[in-house]
Fold these 4 entries.
Entry 1:
Amino acid sequence: TPEEFFKKFEKDYNEFWTEERKAKEQKLGLTREQIYALASIVQKESGGKEDEQKTIAGLYLNRYEKGMKLQSDPTVIYAINKEHNFTKQIKRIYNKDLKHPSPYNTYANAGIPPGPICMVNKAAVDNVLNAEKNNYIFMCADPEKLGYHKFTDSDIEHAKNAKAYHEWLNKNKIK
């Protein structure tokens, strides 16, 4: 029944938010809603692969703490898809897409979006709560290791990574 479902959901939620996780939440200085929203971005950015999630979470927290825009491609995809009732398949983000007006678009808006961009899993939340301490502020999809990223704190290195990735997209006719 719906009542049983919501009782189970509430029970699981309360069991998940242990004192240890609540302490990590406090240390991050984010609201629980912000943690879920950020975890959803990390989950989508990683393609669901958990081995990069702590690094990605650390990068986004670095950007957030520096007052930078998060500039997450999955938020742009979500913003565009939300407008099309999630029927549009987007394989590539273009500069025009980065200006798409939506509170979820982290290229157009500073801060963390108003809510999650997907149904976030527990692992992604834990990976935000246990984010890697790093200096990264840039990442780019790695054409040599599909599904993974190259990370850097150098805008020059990032420009090289982005150039290589865009060349790969063009070579493979991904539009």
Entry 2:
Amino acid sequence: MKKIFIILLVGLFLSSCSSVVSVKIDNVKNSNLNSRNDDVPLTVIVYQLKDVNKFAKASDLELITREDAILGKDKIDSIRLQIAPKDNIVAFKVVDEEVPYIGILVLFANKTKKITKIWAKTDDANGFGTKKTLKFEITKDGIRHI
């Protein structure tokens, strides 16, 4: 009985050391206007990364066409999403110890002078315990961490 209690206690301690982080992305109104000024959906690529150096140095085109070759072993996983205007989504939930960084690439209809790429540490998530969240907002000026 004492061994079972110790095993449960160790398991509880280990599970409390890491947190689950939700990655939330808000797409505000008129963030992605096409040539006819229609508010169209965005394509967003969300990366789970071990390190951000290669992501930060890579161009948008390199990431779109050759993400595996460019990011190499720094890439844990990625997901490509469509986000409608005035919509918000939770891209995924990750364990902060397994995924130290999140990178986001936004593909706009018109890419003039917009911030298309951003990254954040999962340790920087707001919240407590299992309710930690990394929040990003996409506006007409680009993407930003909020």
Entry 3:
Amino acid sequence: MKNMISYICLLATVFANLSCADDMDNSKFDNMIPYGKQEVSYTYPKGEGSLRVLTFNIRHCAGNDDVINYDRTAAVINGMEPDVVCLQEVDYMTTRSNKVDQLKTLADKTGMNYYFSKSIAYQGGEYGNGLLFKGTPISTKTYLLPGAELRSAAIAEFENYVVISTHLALEENNRVESAKQLTDLAKTYNKVVYMAGDFNEDLMNGTFFTELKKEWEVVSSTENTFPTGQATKRIDFVVTLKTPPTIVVKSNVIYNLDGVNVAITSDHYPLYCDFKKPTGLEEYPKAEGDLRIGNYFLTYCKGTDGVIDYDRTGRIIAKMNADIVCLQGLDKETERSEGIDQLNVLAQKANMHDYFAKAIDYKGGEFGVGILTKEEPVSVDRYQMAGKSEMRAAMVVEYEKFVVASTNFDTDMAKRIEALQTLETKLSAYNKPAFLLGYFNEGDLESEFFQMVKSNWNLLSADKSTEVSGKKRRLDFIVSLKSHNVNVTQADVIENLSGVDVTIASTHYPLFCDFSGLK
């Protein structure tokens, strides 16, 4: 009985407290999430300066309901705002698709341009892969690939990159062979290459991916892409050629998207990758924080084809991606160059500052050497040096941490040695790391001239020929005074560039060295 009375009293206290609830301050609960299903938004915003590559096996636009619905497929594409779309299983004028050009239809609905690659003839039409893209490519092509059912790749080349859309064979041996062929093809472009599609392979440690990953980076999301609904396999991919390198911003498989039922649109989920937009400077990448100094002998911008082409030379200089470029063989307002200040024209094309040193008066103008630089120097100086048949010059620019000189040595050994001694004295006076770049007019590294070079200077540039044809000697150099140590992180001679023929632009190849600790 006593316990019963205690229990009744406890209940009375509880109800008394509850009856006072209306008088309590419940404001702290105002921002609590209400009970029930919440509205979730599925969007995939693209960052500024990104390039978005989307890949989608569209199953000839027939969804899992077996209804061909172009609006539905286009809604997925439009919702992702891609720059390039790689499509697989595309019909062109087939019976099952009611004689519709599917890729053109999707292009019209997305406001993009397009290119189709036929894999096989099918039902009175064609079946294959497609590309949708913004802008106009430099070139497009279809590359046929092996398979029990023949395969293909649709390829579009743009100014700074290449995109490949493909759907590989069901047979492993044909997938492996396709990877080899596509790798060889991709390398010929000397550009960033994105390859995307249905690879028909989910064994990441199998033969196909073991071979592929020797030359390609698998950069897409690790989420599964097939089939829609269960998504038990990862067979759709985006990969990039390792050289030139790319920077991946993000990647996702699109399971949900505002305004469209993705799962019913196809039997594959679409997949995208966002990349830092390529600039065309990826062919010879420079480490962050490094300083790049380059050299280029120009022959007054006249190529081996006999054409003076400032656009061609300017593109090469821009693609060098150098902080400082030393140039030799420059005309300034001469008759043969139609009164053009060549260095100034190149500076405008490269968006750099220009500094010229006259060697001689020539045909109503001047002929000499110069330097292009991204950063304005602390000081500049110009020196004239004796030559056997004509005067020579050196252009010197000083920065806070180092000094750079550009010159073109004489053909005479004694005059070369005399000029070298003069420059050593002048540059030593700066008491900081000193670099000398130019056309040394000597290919024998055991000569008396080079014995003097090697006694007081470090040879930094790559041990490669800089002469395009003929004897193909190493005539252009980057050296530094031994009095100050410098750390070279990379050195190369540029023999190939995308979009411009280096072998025609001049009789010499450009070269460069990268340094750490000088910025």
Entry 4:
Amino acid sequence: MIKTRSSKVPALAEYVRSNHPYEVAEVISLPIDQGNPPYLKWIGDVVPE
């Protein structure tokens, strides 16, 4: 599992497609509507816009 911002998903998907050995690599994006507030703050702090 890779965690990133929604705005970064297209570039991440392209990177995975270019570098993963599988013909069809799984790349999905799931919205987070709730979670542990300290964790959500941390992920927001460590993943740049």
